[in-house]
Amino acid sequence: xxxxxxxxxTLSDWRAVYRGEPVALHESCRDAIxxxxxxxxxxxxxxxxxxxxxxxxxxxxxxxxxxxxxxxLQRNIVLSHAAGVGAPSxxxxxxxxxxxxxxxxxxxxxxxxxxTVVMIEALLAADALPVIPCQGSVGASGDLAPLSHMAAVxxxxxxxxxxxxxxxxADGLAKVGLTPLELGPKEGLALxxxxxxxxxxxxAALFEAETVFQAALxxxxxxxxxAKGSDAPFDHRIHRLRGHAGQTEVGDxxxxxxxxxxxxxxxxxxxxxxxxxYCLRCQPQxxxxxxxxxxxxxxxxxxxxxxxxxxxxxxxxxxxxxxxxNFHAEPVAFAADMIALAICxxxxxxxxxxxxxxDPALSGxxxxxxxxxxLNSGFMIPQVTAAALVSENKQRAYPASVDSIPTSANQEDHxxxxxxxxxxxxxxxxxxxxxxxxxxLAAAQGCDFHxxxxxxxxxxxxxxxxxxxxxTLDEDRHFHPDIASATALVRSGALxxxxxxxxxxxxx
Length: 508
What we know:
Layout: E1 2-4, H1 11-18, E2 23-25, H2 30-46, H3 70-81, E3 85-88, H4 91-105, H5 114-125, E4 128-130, E5 133-135, H6 144-154, E6 159-162, E7 165-168, H7 169-175, H8 187-192, H9 196-226, H10 236-242, H11 245-258, H12 262-266, H13 278-281, H14 283-305, E8 313-315, E9 320-322, H15 330-358, H16 360-363, H17 380-396, H18 418-423, H19 425-448, H20 457-467, H21 480-492, H22 494-499
Parallel strand pairs: 1-2
Antiparallel strand pairs: 3-5, 4-6, 6-7, 8-9
Helix pairs in contact: 3-6, 4-5, 4-9, 9-11, 9-14, 9-15, 9-19, 10-11, 11-14, 14-15, 15-17, 15-19, 17-19, 19-21
């Protein structure tokens, strides 16, 4: 069970939630939630116009709403804003989004009642998740459409996914022992305003990017072994002189992965090559830069996940409702763009190593890594597949944050596009995972040609992990299952876990 203490949750906490750990709020935040709700009641009693409580929304903020219509106002905003389209968001994303909303409410600045928070916890505990269309948010004024679909389900409208079975919301709530929520003042707006959809997508991609990054360190070292490349470019002294933390850590990791290799020792003295291609030699510089960027994105997302991003915000000590712009997801948009660039480069340099290995002029190995080239095509087309995936990621890596578009009759005249920027990332990560899976196959095949020489203990464990599922390619065979198996080892983290070595990462 992950118990969230708002303001202090770590990336590791959010990663555990994304991967299915039960989640709840820490009891210590209940008083702040109750105080915030009581403050809203006092504000309503005063009768003065306060945005989101007794006024219209967006361009209609100047329209005053009478006390008898306040409940209808909140229900209307939820139903009208539940205008998303596209495929349902993945269940893991929805769980993470709801947990992020819980943490935000737990700060006691949103004015929602304790019962509303308890209902989100109950839905998560029952694995009863709102069906959230994945398209329709521009990342300001918050992720309105996706979060409205969540709020609508809590009100008994829409569809709910109970352990994989989609049913009408009212039926689903009844099935798990819940009754539809009648929203109080401010609650509809609090539920649908915020950056939790964008942040959930960006965090999920960050976790997948970390997994493929670490796997690519292993396959990069294995490719260096297969090509009988040098480990001299990974010397700590080189990277210490430049000073980038990620570069230094990657260099140390690669050198450590190759330590004790008989393959490396076999050509240390008599190799006529002075320098290796950049795809081998510059791994610390490229992968280290990717690590630094991912860590910066991770820091931004950790701060965002621990903050409050709805509007207006309630300050219970003074009974003030202050309107601002915390719903603007520009920090998340920038983080998403950074993750996209890192994923793109991880896959790009991996594909270049595959291309190097299949080219006998560069690798010194048989053409296309097959013992009988000509009769067999070997790794010819897997390299083409990797190139196709890398090209797709290049096209997707265009920054989303620079593409603002005015909405709401120009009241919301600059938006972040964070939702789009974050939502594309899981597909990019999947592409990179497949590229690294193909490299795993190619690098292991290359090392097979050096038998009986062995690589280091860590890299031999990586090869054994693969060879437990995919045999050496002696003759052409149906290649797709091999790629699927290797990619699964990358995506699941089994390859990284299997080597028994700690590698640099993003989440502490």
